[in-house]
Amino acid sequence: MEILFFCPRWGSETVAWPEFAHRVREAGYDGVEVALPRGDRAGSEAILDALTLQGLKWYAQNWDEAGSQVSRAEAEFFDRLEWQLAFEVKPIGINCQTGRDYWAPEHNLELLRKASRRAHQAKVPLFHETHRAKFSYAASVAATYLRQEPDLKITADFSHWCNVSESYLQGQEAAVDLAIARTGHLHARVGHTEGPQVSDPRAPEWAEALSAHDAWWDRIVAARRADKTKRFTVTPEFGPPPYLPALPYTGQPVASQWDINLWMMQRLRERWKT
User: Fold this and answer.
1) Stretch 79-96: mean pLDDT
2) Which domains, ranges and CATH numbers included, belong to the chain?
3) Whole-angstrom Cα distance, residue 17 to residue 2?
4) Does residue 21 contact residue 32 with C-beta atoms inside 8 Å?
5) pTM higher than 0.90 for the full model?
6) pLDDT per position as a tens digit, 25-53
């Protein structure tokens, strides 16, 4: 099975795209995970040109920012989705933050079903991220949707679930097993019982958190190999402040986001021998 690693654009937005793409390629990533700026054709084409020049692949993102009104949020979600599909260069896949934790289940289900139909038409894999505030904000809640929708596939980011449940998901093994079985894309960020991101996964005080996530991730990769998946995708997605803790008053991050993501990519590439 081919495993591709994508660098997040998140946290590097101020770096010009030609420079960023060159840096990503030199670091050994296979591509970049980023949403093309909706409505900005020149800017979107410039991003794709920079990636193509460096021989990098593209993993798209999708979400909405329309607030609580279901109809407006759904319209924006699909407007943004269509923009990610509007260019000759197609994404390897699309990671979506979908629905709301407070929406009625039928609203979330309808959005999930419509997204699945559109992705099937476009022949682009689409996965829904396990994320706080979305339909999939907790392991037990996400499991109810996965049971109702046999074709529903996720981007696994269990750091959010650790934060929501204030645990390493002990007692929720059935929900975790189901999520692992349905994972098509991975956000390799380490969370803990009081937050969605440890300060530095290389530090010994976070050994328990790292070990818990390693165990889930290894099971995901083993499951995809067992079901003969040809290509699996991973984005080490440690974020900048405020995800990354910073010192009071100065705002100085306690570690380098770039270095942490690079370290995670390199260790997973070696761990899974890709």
Assistant:
1) 97
2) 2-271 (3.20.20.150)
3) 26
4) yes
5) yes
6) 999 999 999 999 999 999 999 999 999 99
